[in-house]
Amino acid sequence: MRRIDKIIIHASDTPADMDVGAEEIREWHVDGNGWRDIGYHWVIRRSGRIEPGRDESVVGAHVAGTNANSIGVCLVGGRGADGSDDCNYTAAQWASLASLVGELQERFPDASVSGHRDHSSKACPCFDVAAWWSERSDGGTNTAKPDKASPSASDDPLPPGHVLLLGGVRSGKSAWAQRLARRSGKAVRFIATATADDDEMAERIKRHQAERPDDWTLIEEPDDLVGAVESASGSGDCLLIDCLSLWLSNRIEKVDADDLNAAGAELAEAVADYDGPLILVSNEVGLGGVAMNSLARRYADALGRLNQQLAARCERVAVTMAGKLLPLKGGFPAGDSLHQDDGE
User: Fold this and answer.
1) Which of 167, 262, 291, 337 lies 20 to 30 A from 14 at CA?
2) Same domain, residue pair 127 and 186
3) Tens of pLDDT along 261-316?
4) pLDDT in tens, 218-251
């Protein structure tokens, strides 16, 4: 086997509405460039499907001067409708890329992770790969082996009803919520409660936006969640609210405990009345010790009560830990590739 010291991420330089795979790119490289095979070792389609290209044991043709000791991975996309560079990859692609790079680094632990642009004057793949991978690695959620089949090809749909996902910071709850929303088969309205109060939060919001599909409708609503839910009534859309803990944080210093309880009850009623699929994301902050200051104790109490109110109104409730989904109430879709453990 070759010595691999680099994993290099590329883009196919195709628009978002053009889904191609390894075979199409192989034709471009063989017929158009006169090469003997596709230049990349792996291709990630718009659906998130990971397709093999050139065999890893064979030197690729993707970055001059680095091919001998590198693996080339191509994300399908990267070109905007106006022909400009565009980081337009789908949420499924981001998840598959993280899985594939994690698996590659398990096999090639000395390999660095970078983008084509780090080795040439090109902008490809339109984002800072090293920074992205560093952030993903710190979260510890990227080591699952990639599913070589399309994530939606054999998966069961999300059953009707409402879902509450609980978890700690960086537990994987937001990623799971997005996966379940894609299973709904409906148009998705993403209701975001976060506000960019500082540079770090603004960057966090930007990363989350990049991970969501382009065809989802974004509704930024840090306060009036009841109004946001009621305004979607009758649409049949899948609502994804992320997250309740930030919504509560936005309100807790403005109202007293009775008003908070009333607001939670009103939201629970709106959730129960919504006639389409609905997914709620919230933090579970009650697993640690009792907080030392009164505001933190008040927040933990209020969020615990809110989570209980909503869990009573949802058909399915689960907690996420270390990127894994642990059902607490009701059934969750079978056939989901993300239910696989690393050893499967």
Assistant:
1) 337
2) no
3) 899 999 999 999 999 999 999 999 878 777 678 888 889 999 999 999 999 999 99
4) 999 988 999 999 999 989 899 999 999 999 998 8
CA distance 187 to 327: 25
Are 123 and 229 found together in one domain? Answer: no
Specify whether 191 is located in the same domain as 322.
yes
Q: 39-71 burial string, b = 16+ CB within 10 Å, else e?
A: bbbbbbbbbbbbbebbebeeebbbbeebbeebb
Residues 104 and 229 in one domain: no
Token pair in block for residue 327: 């059902």
The DSSP bridge partners found for residue 10 are 74
* Residue with more model confidence, 120 or 70: 70
pLDDT at 228: 94
117, exposed or middle or buried, with CB in 10 Å at 0-12, 13-18, 19+?
A: buried
For residue 180, which of 163, 203, 201, 205 has the smallest C-alpha distance?
163
- How many Cα atoms within 13 Å fall on the side-chain side of residue 203? 6
Residues designated as active site? 208
pTM over 0.85: no
Task: Indicate whether 153 belongs to any domain.
Answer: no
Cβ–Cβ < 8 Å for 125, 315: no
Q: Are residues 316 and 168 in the same domain?
A: yes
Which single residue is written with the structure tokens 């990227």?
142
